[in-house]
Specification:
By secondary structure, this protein is an alpha+beta fold. It has four helices and 14 strands. A seven-stranded antiparallel beta sheet has the order 1-11-7-14-5-4-2, covered by helices on one side. A five-stranded antiparallel beta sheet has the order 3-6-12-9-10, with no helix packed on it. The chain has a two-stranded antiparallel ribbon with strand order 8-13.
């Protein structure tokens, strides 16, 4: 039986630094994004995104959202995310190897769009997720709040604008509250690395 290993991004090899003499930090970080980048990301999502059908009845019980998959390499969005991850990992100090997946999501009020409480790690490929990304690309919607449980067991709401990308440790429990009006457009991504030890 041959060994199968994760392909590593050259960007990550050159730009993502993990100091084994320093502790890892778990948390939520907001990373500034240059003005106008959200609009360019939207253009790329509409032009190059591949629609994914997650419309099964069982799935809709806890998640109602329209989804497209974007390239994890050689794209404007992946370049923005790579640089944001390099910045965020100066605080996190995780061993990282690549962007695992990038998705463009639309939450529509008429679909009562939401995503109930969940974590982004699990079995299989999800086991290697270390950092989750949420980059809201628009404003003008009501509801659709990104919420986390705090250490004290309280709910903390993070509602950035298109110039702020939210990154967080992937095992943090979070949700998107039901959308009440408008359309919430967001890029989400997961950054993987060697298994947690």
């Amino acid at each position: 039986m041959s060994n199968i290993s994760t392909l590593h991004s050259d960007f990550f090899k050159k730009n993502i630094i993990c100091d084994l003499n320093k502790p890892q930090v778990y948390g939520i970080l907001q990373v500034p994004i240059q003005d106008g980048y959200a609009e360019l990301a939207l253009q790329e999502a509409y032009k190059d995104g591949i629609e994914v059908d997650y419309k099964t009845k069982e799935f809709k019980k806890y998640r109602a959202v329209e989804q497209w998959r974007l390239s994890t390499t050689d794209s404007f969005v992946s370049e923005v995310l790579n640089n944001a991850i390099a910045q965020a990992n100066k605080t996190y100090n995780y061993k990282l190897s690549k962007i695992q997946d990038i998705q463009y999501l639309e939450y529509h009020a008429d679909l009562e769009a939401k995503y109930d409480w969940h974590v982004d790690i699990g079995d299989g490929l999800k086991a290697n997720r270390k950092i989750s990304i949420s980059w809201v690309l628009n404003q003008g919607f009501v509801g659709g709040n990104l919420e986390f449980f705090s250490d004290a067991g309280e709910i903390v709401q993070v509602n950035p604008n298109p110039n702020i990308l939210v990154s967080f440790t992937s095992f943090f429990n979070h949700q998107i509250t039901p959308l009440k009006a408008g359309c919430r457009k967001v890029i989400v991504a997961w950054i993987e690395g060697p298994s947690w030890k």
